[in-house]
Specification:
418 residues; Collagenase (Catalytic Domain); Jelly Rolls; six-stranded antiparallel sheet; disordered N terminus
């Protein structure tokens, strides 16, 4: 892989590992409140659980009642430890009729490698084809699968549908997982399955964001709340994503160690992971954004980059790991003269929009090599007018991209009657 292409990939696809899991087993909670295992010894939800929308409305994550037509999120498998036998573990779960999306999160030791080996849909067909990494053309992920999937260091998150062919069906699903540590099959991995359900796919949504400040740009958790410069950055997000009906909702603000104001994605440098590990379960279940002075690469020709997502997508509802956020540099590339660095609010806001696109599951529409492209049919190749092009300067979001973003469980939906 040549230097330029490698740097383009790490620009926003720096796929880092999660912190090592703890030793506390978390049982699966069924819809009726019971706890247990399926008859074949694998974990999942009770097949007798209700398979349609509740007549009195669903529950959101805070436990408050929502209108029947408002999509809600439920946890079908909650951080369950799954044994891996001869390199493969299995998770089965039942999916209701009103499924909108399913998210599978697999994580383990920070130096491990985890992901989906196969996923059988509720209708018996393959959402993710078994042994997909062995097929030509799948070097960057399963492009040949009905639903795109990948396997990553530390943590892997797959959302279905993340492309038009990835429609999910009700019924019993089976996901086979894989994991390796130091070149050997892992003994186990943690798995969560998150269901978004409702009568129809959402057409708009809200994203809560937790902001972390290292002192870069002179911002602190207190000062940014009245800072016009920061307000312009947020305005840029609402301007671009508002076109697909997505806006920022609740925001929380946290000061962290200024020693993390410069981080690196260079090989064998763990400062980015140390930064991301500061994400905490705070007032929201939103995504995590860290503002730093600079993000170094360790490469002399490309010494720094404006932003990076620690994983694509970020694992929703899993804070405190090295995969749990995005970093935004406020000073810009070192090669740019100090008086011309990446400082104006629209530019920082543009980077924020691009990196949060990765956090929500978007890959680059096209890389600078003009050979590598995303999985969407409606994102023209090598068109940098799109937000998720490698150069990150565009503003367009395609209909397929918009649908994939809005089904992400981190995006929630307010009761229209309120």
């Amino acid at each position: 892989m040549n230097l330029v292409y490698r740097l383009l990939l790490i620009l926003s696809l720096c796929l880092c590992g999660c912190a090592a899991d703890d030793d506390t087993d978390t049982p699966v909670r069924f819809g009726d409140g019971s706890v247990g295992l399926l008859g074949d010894g694998t974990t999942g939800v009770d097949s007798s659980a209700e398979s349609g929308p509740a007549s009195d409305g669903g529950l959101n994550d805070s436990g408050t009642t929502m209108a029947d037509d408002t999509p809600v999120v439920e946890r079908l498998v909650d951080n369950e430890r799954i044994p891996i036998d001869q390199g493969v573990g299995r998770v089965t779960f039942d999916v209701p009729q009103d499924v909108i999306s399913l998210t599978v999160i697999i994580h383990g030791e920070s130096n491990g490698w985890y992901g989906i080996d196969s996923w059988i849909d509720g209708d018996g067909s393959a959402l993710v084809t078994a042994d997909w990494p062995s097929f030509p053309g799948n070097e960057r992920g399963c492009f040949s699968c009905r639903n795109f999937a990948n396997q990553n260091q530390g943590a892997s998150t797959t959302i279905a549908p993340n492309r038009d062919t990835g429609t999910v069906h009700p019924g019993r699903h089976q996901v086979n997982i894989v994991g390796w540590v130091d070149g050997f099959a892992a003994d186990s991995a943690r798995v969560s399955v998150i269901l978004k359900r409702g009568p129809r796919p959402p057409e708009n949504g809200v994203l809560d964001v937790n902001f972390y400040f290292t002192g870069a740009q002179g911002w602190t958790a207190e000062s940014v709340q009245t800072d016009n410069y920061f307000a312009a950055t947020i305005e840029r997000f609402n301007e671009l994503y508002g076109r697909i009906g997505l806006t920022i909702g609740d925001m929380t603000y946290h000061d962290i160690d200024p020693a993390l104001s410069v981080v690196s994605i260079a090989e064998d440098d763990d400062t980015l992971g140390a930064l991301m590990a500061n994400a905490v379960a705070s007032q929201t279940d939103g995504l995590n954004v860290f503002f730093v002075d600079e993000i170094l690469t360790g490469e002399p020709d490309f010494p720094s980059i404006p932003g990076v997502a620690a994983s694509v997508p970020n694992p929703p509802y899993l804070p405190g790991t090295v995969a749990s956020g995005v970093a935004i540099a406020t000073r810009g590339p070192l090669s740019v003269p100090p008086g011309q660095r990446f400082l104006d609010p629209p530019a920082i806001g543009q980077t924020l929009c691009h990196e949060l696109g990765h956090a929500l599951g978007m890959f680059h529409t096209s890389e600078y090599d003009e050979v590598s492209h995303d999985v969407y049919d409606d994102t023209p190749e090598n068109d940098n007018t799109y937000l998720m092009h490698a150069d990150g300067t565009g503003a367009r979001i395609s209909p397929e991209q918009a649908r994939a973003i809005l089904v992400n469980p981190a995006v929630y939906h307010r009761d229209p009657s309120n």
